[in-house]
Amino acid sequence: MNVTYERIYAVVNRIPKGRVATYGQIALLAGIPGQARRVGYALSALTEERRVAWHRVVNARGEISLRAEPGAGELQRAMLEAEGVVFGRDGRIPLARVLWQPSAPASPRVRRGRASRARPRGRR
DNA sequence: GCCATGACGTTCC
DNA sequence: GGGAACGCCATGG
Length: 124
Description:
Layout: H1 3-13, E1 21-22, H2 23-29, H3 36-44, E2 57-58, H4 72-83, H5 95-98
Parallel strand pairs: 1-2
Helix pairs in contact: 2-3
This protein binds a DNA duplex through helix 2, helix 3 and strand 2.
């Protein structure tokens, strides 16, 4: 297993209870900024032995990313709700309130709206 | 070794 | 605000 994967899992495990983090955020903290896709892949290859809090990882929209496993979305939502994470009417999570902020000493309004803009590219 | 796909993200129209 | 396009990378065929 790659060290990157381990680091990703470690970052995910650092998410405090009752909070969620986005894939991009995790990728950033894991040392692979902009590669959220790899994070998703790492989580897909996740096993129960790892015991990673994968349910605290959501996409940038605050929604639960569905995967191959049927019913996993419901499970994830149930686990999050059990931890105190609130869900909006449309099934989304208000990231402004429950988004994990690794370095939020006293100003919770550090990043509002988007998760980050590490790559201001975007040619089209 | 090339091609297609995927638990995603960001920017532009 | 919604949709489309491009990116980056690992994995499997």
